[in-house]
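Q: Hi! First time doing this. I have a protein sequence and I read that you can turn it into a structure. Is that right? Here it is:
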Amino acid sequence: VQLQASGGGLVQAGGSLRLSCVSSGNIVWGNDMGWYRQAPGKQRELVAALISVGIPHYANSVKGRFTISRDNAKNTLYLQMNSLKPEDTAVYYCYVQDVYSNNYWGQGTEVTVSS
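A: Yes, that's right. Below is the predicted 3D structure, encoded as C-alpha cells:
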C-alpha cells in the first residue's frame, strides 16, 4: 500500500475529524495532492488540494470549515474538518502526484455525519 488514509468515523453535526494520508517512502511528492470525496449515488468531487507551491484550494461547500495541510517530514497529508454537516458524509480519498506526474490514491476512509 503506497497511500494509507485514516481518520474517518461517525461524528455528530458540528463536530470535527482529522483525516490523515501517509505515503510510503518510495513516493517522491510533487506539487499536486489533495482529497476527493464520493457520497452515495454521487460523483466523486474534489474537496481540497494543495497545488503548485502549496497553495490550498477548496470546494465552495467546505471553505472556512476544512483545512488541508502536509507534513513533509512525516510524508503525511491532512484534512482537518470542522463544523461537519450531514452533507459531508462520504468516502474520502487522498491522492498524491509524484514528481514524475504519476498519481497515487489512498483506499478511502468513510466519514458519516449524523444530524
